[in-house]
Every structure is written in C-alpha cells, then in structure tokens.
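Researcher: Please translate sequence to structure tokens.
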Amino acid sequence: MILIIIKLIIVAFFANLLYELVHSALYKTCLEMPVKKYVPLILRASGVDSVWITGFYLITYFIFKNLNPLTNYYQLLVFFIISISFAYFWEIYSTGRLPNNHFTAIFIFCLRLCKNFSTYVKHMFQNFFFASPKIWKFRYKHYSADDLVKNKRWEYSKNMPLVLGVGFTPLIQLFLTGILSFYITFAVK
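Model: Translation complete:
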C-alpha cells in the first residue's frame, strides 16, 4: 500500500505539472509573473495537487476497500464528487468570491485545518530532505498561493472559460489528472 501511495504521488505530481503548465496561461497572475516566481509556484501547486489527489484516493479506498479505483465505478463517482466539489470551493476561495455566511465560515475553518496539516507535512519533509530549514524558507517564502489569495492577486485571464463563476480548467483538473494518475499507477505495468 505504501508503494502504491508513493507511486501515485509521483505520477500525480508530473500529471499536474503538465496540466499546470498548460492551463496557467489562463491565469492573469501567471501571465504577469516573472519566471523566478512562476516556476516555484507551478512546482508547489503541482505538489499540493498530487497530495490532494492521493488524499481523495485514500478516502475512496477506505470507503470501498478497493485498491484500484478504475475497477469500481462507484469509487470513481465518489472521487469525482470529492475532487470537483473541492476544486469548486477552492477556486471560489482563491479568487475571493466567497459569500459571507455560516457555510463560508465552516469552509474556511476546514481549509485552515488542512493548511495546518500541510504545514506539519512540510516540516517533516524539510527535516528529512534538507539539512537546514532556512533553505526551505528561502525557496518558498515569497511564492505561496496563499499569499496570492490574501492579496487578491489570483485572477483569471479573459480567456478562462467560467462554469458557475469559477474557471473550467481548474474545476476539472484534480479529477482529470487523478484519473490519468490512477491509469498510470494501476493499469500501466
């Protein structure tokens, strides 16, 4: 199981890296960003997306007790619902379009919990791979997507197709790259 998770994370990272490179042209932020900031942002986004895909896979695995989601249509349906729902709300949050209500407060609370968990994982990663935490902070300090969201600088370009107020390509990204990652991880030998 551990080898499958590692393989899925690696495959999902590269699938998302390709997807991010292609669809980043639909973001005004990426079009105007210098290369020195663009590259770390795209790498980080690909890494985070690969972790989300793996997390959603694990949720469906624990529900259906099935390693290969490509063999269970209900498992794929649950993965679809989770990934599309998450992507929709993440895009609303990222572009500053959240309505001010109780649901929004719960959603932001959940995002903060996830961010705290991802910070914990990041620290484990940096302690394992880097001798000094200063290296990690130097590399990623100014390029986080959270900073873009806080400053409301994460904007779609005029070419981004919108569905229900969010970008179409980021809406389907986790599902499409997840399916591709499942296919490469489980079907390709």
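Researcher: Any highlights?
Model: The radius of gyration is 17 Å.
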